[in-house]
Predict the 3D structure of the following.
Amino acid sequence: MELFFTILILLALVGVSNVLSGHFPLVPVPLMQIALGMLVAAVPSGLHMHLEPELFFVLFIAPLLYNDGKHASRTELWKLRVPILLLAVGLVFATVFLIGYAIHWMIPSIPLPVAFGLAAILSPTDAVAVGSLAGRIRLPNSLTHLLEGEALMNDASGLVAFKFAIAAALTGSFSLAQASVSFVFIALGGIAVGAVTALLVSGIRVWLRRSGLEDETMHMLVHLLTPFALYIIAEQLGVSGILAAVAGGVVHAIERDRISSIKPLSNELSDNTWSVIVFILNGLVFVILGLQLPSVFGDVFKEPTLNNGEVIAYAVLIFLMLLVLRFIWAYAFSRGGRWIGKKTEPNVRIKFKMLAMTALSGVRGAVTLAGAFSIPLLLDNGAPFPERSLVIFLSAVVILLSLVSASALLPLFAQQPAEDKAAERAAAERKGERLLMGAAIRAVHSATTEDNEVESASVIAEYERWRRDPKVDMRRMQLGKNDLEEREMRLRAIDEERRTVNMLLREDRITETQASLFQSNLEQMSMVLSARTNLFKLLAKFWLQELKALLTKQESRFKAMRDLSASDREAIRGVKVQTCEAALSSLRSERICDARAAVIGQYEHLLSRLTAPYSFGKPPEGDEEVRRDLQWIAIQAERDEVQSLFERNEITRDVANKLRRTIRTREATLLSEVLD
């Protein structure tokens, strides 16, 4: 039960950290998770968890790197292969030798092999932390791809170098030639084992499908077990399990691209499942890291032979040396060569800002601390391992310093001129709109059956028209730059529609049933626009009303809408024309501004559809209720696509919110069609 409660508490901390991130967007989620872990561990009789390095690597690092390899852009990785190898391999070994010698010179109590080991475990960057920072700070795309590729590769090179350094410390002997050959064997062997194993797993899944076993849940289980199998098999064969996991992810991505058109629902199930798993594992990595820090700090601060101020100063100096070496390395190989995918002339230098961001983005994380904890307690001769607690402490402080410095300084370097920022945001919005349209079309395609082919074709044709010329429909339904002013103006227009309906009812120009249905629709539109509810709450309220009507044996609103006669529908359509005209008259008396023009544009568009043949609420063919269901499916697909784009760091939070407001406006427009 103790382990069960521990897991529950850790998962709760992950959830709390993501809630807090919404209120404190300037603080990276990994830092919040580390802080929560430290807080819980520091509480008397609080939560404590012993970090098992081998279990940590197989349980957390393997699936996370497998997922990163699966989603990494293979085109970008190949384009940036030279700088990636320079950082992931060249810089790692430069760090081991240069920083290792510097650590030994600065702290003589740390033997040279141990200093090499400390430098080796400090060399890998953390893919999870880098991804978190890139999504919050919006690094240039080329730099983001470079950092992701480096993080996929340098875990293996750093851990291999660490392994040989610790072996030298344990045995007292070291052979550079043997280490070099072993490194090549371990690295290439890991890639080969990962690729071959992933191909075998893919073959097994294909064989199962051909045998008639199409159970997607079972196939998803095989997929989930794949990264663990890749890592364990590679480690048992004496090669890099980390590179095996990465290679397996890349192979899976290739397989996915090949069959994506055949099994779209399978891919959707896989994506949804992996998104939950990655979310949990990412959070647990940093919470567990935070749990370890109080004991790490306590062991060093309570040691009478160590001066607290000195050891903190050592950690700061080591971090600064790592930062300077990374900057110099990037600068040296950017002159006359190729860096972040851009060719440079021999006398042209990469801008200082880009080099500084490259240096600051070398964030260390959980792999560093897990590697430090894997240091044995005793040497081969039975003596205590020299300065083990100090090495772990220095690793932990460097991790914190790298996270804090990147969070504080990267936003300063990543700032863009206002004109460039506006242009980039506009381009991101246009791209997002196109991707939303594509996601909606794919969702409707997936939901198409023989019974709804006509309605599906109608919805798809509408989205295709928006995608070809979004200015015609989509832009007119968007909220403008001044969102609050426009929303308030639209709500005032709806109030004018309400007054018009009440006037028509008093004059007996419409029936009470028609007025009730119309007013209910206007109320739902008001709730959507005022952000007091969302689609799920709105639908829940609708179905609760339907259930209440069923229990009380009253006529439900859904049935009333469905059973409207042709004359009633035509009457309501005429009412809508009058309410639109009244709203337009009211809007034209408002002061001239962008918000006024946008809302007038929407009502004029709505009015033109109402007065056109076979227009608003009257599709030429098909069942209107079926068509509307498909429209809700398309809108939900748009919402999912916005969230996916944001999680993949392809759009900023502001752009995501703008696209969500666009979807809310489209929901309101769809709701306005319910009665017609």
Observations:
- Residues 430 and 581 are 31 Å apart (CA to CA).
- The chain has a mean pLDDT of 77.
- The domain at 2-415 is CATH 1.20.1530.20 (Na+/H+ antiporter like fold).
